[in-house]
């Protein structure tokens, strides 16, 4: 290997390490999209702006398109996996590949039934919920069971390969109390990127979406819905208690990126090789 090539390797290593340093210190405010309204029209403009920020909608197939967005609106879930039956946590990574897998401290997840087959908007759980909740995209809604907290972890659609996204948003229904319903974002090292709160709309719809524009990547989000767990006989008072469920999820295309440690090792290795060659050839004495 020539001295000239060794110098080129050293320069490449220096660039790698400089870029890593910039990435680790980059600071930019997340771009927040938030709106509430008494009906879907009240949040539609903000939802569409968030969609435009993420890019074109990709089809529900395995693999990553590298850019654009995925969406879950629940309405294509088959009746056999809808209320009163539970939804498999990996349905949107296996059955309909969109790279999202759910988890919860509770007992599972449920998608509400359509009027053609059952009680809508979780009236099967508690009669009267349909008077409290409404849909953004009819007819189905989504909730965790046994807990008001759930996580969404991202994978390359149709695989077990961990992935990250650039942004995530959710439609919520009947957010009565401020600073309760939230989305917390975590990067690929499980470090929190921040917690953001959904705006309120009593018996209406709320949207919260966050896009990170400084290279931050999201591997997981934690959604907290109100401060009560949906269930039989569980009714809010709108003053100190709040039951919230969800409609559409919208998020960036899941992709794999090099981990910072990999970049460090690569840059350090290149620098070491170049330095060794320089010493052997007497360069830099």
Q: What's the Cα radius of gyration?
A: 23 Å
Quaternary state of this entry equals single chain
**Would you report the number of β strands?**
12
Give the class from helix and strand content and strand pairing. Answer: alpha+beta
Strand order of the largest sheet: 1-10-7-12-2
Mean pLDDT across all amino acids: 87
Shape: globular
Number of helices, where a helix is a run of at least 4 consecutive DSSP H or I residues: 4
Binned, the helix content reads 10-25%
Largest sheet: 5 strands, antiparallel
- Which regions contain 5 or more consecutive residues with pLDDT less than 50? 3-7, 9-27, 261-268, 280-285
Question: Please, could you describe this protein's structure?
Answer:
The protein is α+β, with helices and mostly antiparallel strands and 285 residues long. The protein has one domain. The chain is 22% helix and 26% strand. The protein is built from four helices and twelve strands; from the N terminus they run H-E-H-E-E-E-H-E-E-E-E-E-E-E-E-H. It has helices at 3-25, 41-54, 129-132, 260-280, and strands spanning 31-37, 69-72, 100-103, 108-111, 142-145, 149-154, 167-175, 182-186, 192-197, 201-211, 220-224, 245-252. The strands form three sheets. It has a five-stranded antiparallel β-sheet, with helices on one face. A hairpin with a 5-residue loop joins strand 8 and strand 9 (192-197). Helix 1 runs antiparallel to helix 4. The protein is globular and about 50 Å long. The two termini are 19 Å apart. The model is unreliable at 3-7, 9-27, 261-268 and 280-285 (pLDDT under 50).
């Amino acid at each position: 290997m020539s001295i000239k090539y060794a110098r080129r390797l050293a320069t490449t290593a220096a660039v790698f390490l400089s870029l890593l340093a910039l990435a680790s210190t980059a600071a930019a405010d997340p771009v927040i999209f938030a709106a509430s309204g008494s009906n879907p029209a009240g949040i539609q403009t903000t939802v569409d702006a968030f969609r435009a920020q993420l890019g074109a909608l990709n089809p529900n197939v395995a693999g990553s398109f590298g850019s654009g967005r995925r969406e879950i609106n629940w309405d294509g879930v088959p009746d056999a996996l809808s209320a009163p039956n539970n939804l498999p946590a990996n349905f949107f990574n296996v059955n309909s590949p969109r790279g999202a897998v759910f988890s919860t401290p509770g007992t599972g997840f449920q998608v509400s039934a359509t009027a053609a087959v059952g009680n809508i908007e979780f009236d099967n759980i508690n009669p009267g919920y349909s008077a409290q909740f409404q849909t953004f995209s009819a007819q189905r809604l989504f909730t965790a069971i046994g807990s008001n907290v759930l996580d969404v972890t991202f994978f390359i659609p149709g695989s077990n390969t961990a992935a990250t996204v650039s942004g995530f948003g959710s439609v919520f229904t009947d957010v009565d109390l401020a600073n309760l319903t939230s989305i917390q974002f975590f990067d690929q090292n499980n470090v929190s990127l921040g917690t953001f709160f959904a705006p309120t709309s009593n018996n209406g719809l709320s949207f919260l979406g966050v896009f990170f524009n400084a290279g931050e990547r999201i591997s997981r989000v934690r959604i907290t819905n109100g401060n009560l767990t949906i269930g039989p006989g569980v009714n809010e008072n709108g003053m100190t208690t709040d039951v919230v469920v969800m409609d559409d999820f919208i998020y960036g295309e899941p992709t794999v990126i090099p981990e910072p440690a990999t970049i460090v090792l690569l840059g350090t290795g290149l620098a070491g090789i170049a330095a060794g060659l320089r010493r052997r050839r007497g360069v830099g004495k």
